[in-house]
Each structure stands twice: as C-alpha cells, then as structure tokens.
TrEMBL record:
Protein name, entry field: Probable alpha-L-glutamate ligase
UniProt record, GO biological process: SOS response; translation
Superkingdom of origin: Bacteria
Keyword rRNA-binding tagged: no
Family under the similarity heading: In the C-terminal section; belongs to the RimK family.
NCBIfam families: PRK10446.1 (NF007764), rimK_fam (TIGR00768)
Record has Manganese as a keyword: yes
GO molecular function: ATP binding; metal ion binding; ribosomal S6-glutamic acid ligase activity
Cofactor: Mg(2+); Mn(2+)
InterPro entries given in the database record: Asp_endopeptidase, ATP-grasp, ATP-grasp_RimK-type, ATP_grasp_subdomain_1, Peptidase_aspartic_dom_sf, Rimk_N, Rp_bS6_RimK/Lys_biosynth_LsyX
Gene Ontology cellular-component terms listed: cytoplasm
One Pfam family hit: Zn_protease
Length: 465
C-alpha cells in the first residue's frame, strides 16, 4: 500500500511556530521552486559562526498596524529570480511549518511582499513527497484566523532570539561575562559597548547612537553597567536609547536617583521606607548641630559620590566626627551624616531584586574591625534567608527608585529593616557564588518577558458582528 496523501488547496492557512506566527495565509504555487515569506526591516546579527537574522512582518494584509518582530538562524544568502524575471539576493532561513496536526521543516527566503495579498508563497521545494496540490480547491487543511494575534497568552509561548547590548567599560569582569554566558546559552546575541565611545545624534524623529564610526543597530534591550565616574555621560547614552524605544534594564532616571545618595534617601523617605536617621550638609560651620540631628555619636559620614565603601567613615566620638566634617569642608564636598545602627554589628543584607521579586539574598560581614561589609573592602558573604518584611522593603525600595534590577542593601535594626543603599548595577559575582543560583539567567528571563515577544501593535481590533 502506498502512503496516505496529504492534500493542499491552492491557498491554505499555516502556522510558523518557531517565528511566533500562529496564523498566516499562504498561496501554494508548484510553479515556484522557492518559498518566500513577507519581511521588512531585515537585519543580520550575531557572531559569524552562528549568524542570525531579524525582521518584521505584517501577517495580516488588512491590518498594517499589526507588526510582529521575528528572528531565526541564518542559513544562506541566495539569488532568487521572481516570476517577473527580476533577480534579488535574499536571506534564507529554515523554519517549521504547521498545518493541522502535521509539522515539517521548510526553507524560506525573506522578501518584501507588502504589495501581495498573500504574505507567504509555498513553493514546491517546501512540499513533502506525500503532498499533492489540488489547484481547484481552497483550504483543504484546517482554517485559522488572524484573531489569534490578539490572544496574548498564546503568543507568550514563543521565545525569539534577541539582540542585546551591554554598556560597560569592563568587558572582562565577572558580571559582564556572566550576562554574556546567560544570554548566549539562551540563543541571544550580545554586543559589549564601551559607554564612553558612544556619541549621539539627537533629533525629534530617528535619533541615533553611533559607536566607533558606525551607527548602532536597533537592540531589543540594553543592559547598562555604568561606573560612578561616568554617571552623567552614561545616563545620557541610556536616555538616548530610551528615546529610540529600546528597553533599558536600568532606566536613566533610576540610575541617576540611586547614584545621588541624597536624592535616593529623599525618595525612600517619601515612600516611608525604613532607613537610618540621615542629615545632609555641605561644609557646615555648626557641625555640633548636624551631629545632634542624627542622635549623636557614633555616626557614619558618607561622601555623596561614594561607592564600594570608599568615602564612608565611622566616627565613634564627637571629636572624631568634627574632624572628619572639617576635612570634608576643606574638600568642599557634599556628604550625608547617618545614625550608626549598632545592632547590625558590621553586617548587612544584600537583596538582589529582579522584576519586582527578591531572587536571592546574602549576608555580608565586615572583616576584622572594619564596620563596612562591602566585598570590595574584604568582607565575606553567605546566602541567607530573609523575613517577609525585609523582602517587602527591598522590593519597595527598588520600585521607588524605578529599577527593574537592583541590589538593595539592608541593615537589620531593632525596629525593622533599614535601607542603606540601592545599587542600579549590582555585581553578580558575590551573589552567584554565595547563593549558587544563576542570577544572570534570571536577569535574562526578565528581559525576555519584557521584550520577547512584544505584544502585536494593532489599533484595529476586530469587532464582533
């Protein structure tokens, strides 16, 4: 007995699940050898040994506002001659076609079919041996509908390859390498960009970011890892990406607020989030009054621009406090004065927040007599369990400073958790080693949920008759 035949009409509905296209109408044409899919804004990306291609498609010819972004491994680039005799160099991908219960691999070329009533042409090379085409019939296989594009839960099942950029001046540090590994293991392409070598073309429509003499492409997401020394320029670059519609893991506003310790504490206070009693001063003559504002000594003095525990001093006595204030006055520096939380005993808790959840926490303990628990200052870290109140405080602090990913440092005070600092570019090494968790992978998962797939852009929803 011969194999059972699979009949196609001259027009059929099919799905391309690997591309996140649950329904597309195709013209079946045995006169054409090559299959073609409508695509525009076609752009290759990724490493030379694993090239990718991304493109946009309007799957519904009747709704030009419905736009889906797709990506696929790039198989080839080939010259194709169309039925009118014109030849065109096209990108070629291999993907899965599905009709009813049947799925099979097909090779497809990408070309702009915007003027065509069928967004796809199914040529003879895409037909299996047991398939026959009945030119007099339409829709021999189950019919689909464009309405599925407005069914968000179905679209969420698809995960496409993303084009990502990490803004950093430290391409070889642990955090950068960890993010690259997590992205590439999930099939995404990553470019590392030195923030200081970016320059911008600022205009109302079609602003651009340039880098080393070339215009940067559109990224699905940008991961800013901006050092404190270039906060102003770094946030300007992030703002430019934001104005171009790119998702930035840490927004420019959140980076700016978290870097300015005074601004951050004012925001936390406005949201009634616990923190050590804080006073702010600039070289005051009346240092005694500033000291009394935070309840006297011992107290902690911090330069506004301090990071990694540098520029942070503990003063045990009033004389010591006054001499440090005097030194800061000589520097004409802005600084914070904070009450010292004795019961924390040189320990703090680093809560790593991703997408509104604490995904891991570690307890950091200072080395020797040093009250600073920063790992950069020789502190040690171990995974720890945190209370519901501590978890809520960390999440609220990250949300108040508008950060999707943040390292929130807490002290365990007698009257509850107190936020010391919110870091917009938290390091991954300490938290990954202490917890044994793939934190970079959780960050990538969050980025995927934010940008892949994008909800279809459509202003014309079909109305029930």
């Amino acid at each position: 007995m011969g194999m059972e035949q699979f009949t196609l009409g001259w027009e059929e509905w099919l799905a391309l699940p690997d591309l996140g296209l649950p329904a597309i109408r195709a013209k079946v044409d045995t006169g054409a050898r090559t299959s073609a899919l409508h695509a525009f804004a076609i752009e290759p990306f990724g490493p030379s040994d694993k090239p990718m291609v991304r493109f946009a498609i309007h799957p519904d010819p009747g709704d030009p506002n419905l736009e889906i972004i797709c990506s696929a491994p790039l198989k080839d680039r080939r010259e194709v001659t169309s039925s009118n005799g014109e030849s065109e160099l096209r990108f070629v991908i291999e993907t899965t076609a599905r009709m009813g219960d049947r799925s099979w691999p097909i090779e497809v070329t990408l070309t702009d079919r915007g003027a065509m009533s069928y967004r796809m042409l199914l040529g003879r090379s895409a037909l299996a041996e047991d398939m026959i085409v009945s030119p007099a019939q339409s829709y021999c296989q189950p019919e689909l509908s464009f309405d599925v594009y407005h069914d968000a839960p179905r679209l969420k099942q698809h995960r496409r390859a993303l084009r990502l950029a990490i803004l950093t001046r430290e391409p070889d540090n642990y955090s950068t390498r960890s993010l690259i590994r997590a992205a590439e293991s999930r099939g995404h392409a990553v470019e590392v960009i030195d923030t200081t070598r970016c320059y911008m073309n600022i205009r109302a429509v079609g602003g651009e970011v340039h880098y080393d003499g070339r215009k940067l492409p559109h990224y699905d997401a940008v991961i800013p890892r901006i050092g404190a020394s270039i906060t102003n320029y770094g946030t300007a670059v992030v703002r430019q990406f934001e104005s171009m519609g790119t998702y930035c893991l840490s927004g420019s506003e959140g980076i700016t607020m978290s870097r300015d310790k005074l601004h951050a504490h004012q925001v936390l206070a406005r949201h009634r989030i616990g923190m050590p009693t804080t006073a702010f001063a600039r070289s005051p003559k009346d240092s005694g009054n500033v000291i009394s504002l935070v309840g006297g000594v011992p107290l902690v003095l911090k330069l506004l621009e301090s990071t990694q525990g540098k520029g942070v001093v503990l003063a045990d006595t009033k004389n010591a406090a006054e001499s440090v204030i005097s030194a800061f006055r000589g520097l004409k520096a802005d600084f914070l004065v904070q009450s010292f939380v004795k019961e924390a005993a040189g320990e703090d808790i680093r809560c790593f927040v991703v997408g509104g959840k604490v995904v891991s926490a570690m307890r950091r303990k200072s080395s020797g007599d040093d009250f600073r628990s920063n790992l950069h200052q020789g502190g040690t870290a171990e995974a720890t369990r945190i209370s519901k109140r501590e978890r809520d405080t960390a999440v609220r602090a990250a949300r108040a400073l508008k950060l999707d990913v943040a390292g929130v440092d807490l002290l365990r005070g007698e009257d509850g958790p107190k936020v010391l600092e919110v870091n917009s570019s938290p390091g991954l090494e300490g938290i990954e080693r202490a917890s044994g968790k793939d934190i970079a992978g959780l960050v990538m998962q969050h980025i995927e949920q934010k940008v892949a797939p994008r909800k279809p852009r459509s202003r014309t929803r079909r109305k029930e008759a």
